[in-house]
Every structure is written in structure tokens, then in C-alpha cells.
Amino acid sequence: MFHEYRRTWKQKTAKRLQPLSPGQCRVHETGIKMICEYLLKDGRRLGTLRVSSIDTAFADDLFEKLLYKSVDGEKVERRTTVNHAMTTARGAWNTISRAHPHLFAPKNPFEKMGLQSTSRETPHANFEELAAFRATAIELGYPSLATGVLIGWEWLQRKAHIFIRFMAEHYRSESRPNHVYVINYKTSTGSWEPLFDKKGLAALSSANRRARRHESIAADGRPDAATRWKQSALERQGRNADSSRAHFEEDQPRACVPS
Length: 259
Hints:
By secondary structure, the protein is mainly alpha-helical. It has two domains: 2-103; 127-256, no CATH class. The protein is 47% helix and 7% strand. A two-stranded antiparallel sheet has the order 1-2. It has a two-stranded antiparallel sheet with strand order 3-4. Helix 5 packs antiparallel against helix 9 (225-237). It is elongated, with a radius of gyration of 24 Å. The relative contact order is 0.10.
């Protein structure tokens, strides 16, 4: 089932307008490995079972068995990872059963499992942390990485769009010298966005301008350049991380952000 499911990842389907991204494929592969490599009581791998032998009770029991792993003798919950694995199995069953209905039970055992996500809030970086990261990346000789994180911050793009799909001709091409091609991370569709407003002024936020100044200071050859810039920036602004983010959002040019 999973082998056939993999073949659909690079295809457009009725429910998916674009092929899966490399990140989505990795998540699916992690779930597939977790399920298929699970050892049954008789020593067989779960991946060797026929799909017709899997029912809802089996799926629920599998979830409970996979939910915890042993780390240094202690049981550690991995709910998010197991949730993804069950979601992968559900999607594979729904997709492949349509092409081979005679091999599958009518009811998908991985549906309506009542999966619950954790309540942990994902931590967000602030602009000062972004600036510090960029300074360090430049000092270590990774200017492209420094540019990449700024693109992600300014244009809300995913890493696959920045480092794989973003091309040189997407930025101020000969046919569109005043535009940049921005990919919407939700739909994976792109549009040309203006770099300048109607008055001809650069449509850059104050955060972007500060980042450019930061880059020039960090490149002045002094080993403490990044530290000096960060300290002076904090002294000038006198804001905490939350107000810094709010200030950035107020300055953010709507023309450069995909809707």
C-alpha cells in the first residue's frame, strides 16, 4: 500500500493541486517507517501484513503501542509524530483503495481515531534574533543562508520555496525589473509583487533596512561587529521581543506579502 502511495506524491490529484513538497514527503516517510518497522508479537514486521487483516481495533492498539518510546530507560511521549504516522496511513488507505477496492475493507481503520494534538505553543523568533542569526551566518561565511532567512521573514516563504524553487530570474528579471516572484506558502502558487510603490520608493520595511545596515556592519572585518550592532540596536529601540515584532508588522509592506 505505502509503495503505491509513494508513487502519487509527485502527481497532481483531485484533492491536491501541487505535488508534495520534500518536507511533506519526509514526514510521510517517517510515518511509514514507524508503522512498517513495528514488530508484532510473533516477530514479524507490521509491513508484511495484508491490509485486509487490519481493522479499527488493530489501528487503535497500534497507536497506543507507538505513542511512547524509551529514552534512557524512561517513557517519552511522541504524540505529534504518531499523529502524523496515523494521518499518513489514513491518506494512503483512502488513495490506494480507490484503485484497488477489492483488496481493502470498505471502512478505513485509520479514520475517525480522535487524534488529539499537544497544547504546546510553537516558539516564534523575534527580529533581534533574526538579526543575530544573520550576523553569525555572514561571519561564518554563509551569506546565502543569511539572505534565505530574511526572505522567509519578509515574504513568508517556506525553506523549499527559498532554496529549491526560488530562482535568479524571480528577482528583478528583464521583463519585470521592479518585481519579485513570491510563492504563497499555503497554495504553492506564485505571483509577481512590486518592489517599489507608486511614488517609486523602495517597498522595504524598516526591519529590512535595519537588516541591510546590520549586514554592512557585520562585514566590516571586526570580530565583535555583530555583538556591537545587536547591543546598539537594543539600546536604540528599548523594546522587548513582543513590541519589536509588533513594530515590524506595522512597517511590513503589504505589497510584498502574499495574500
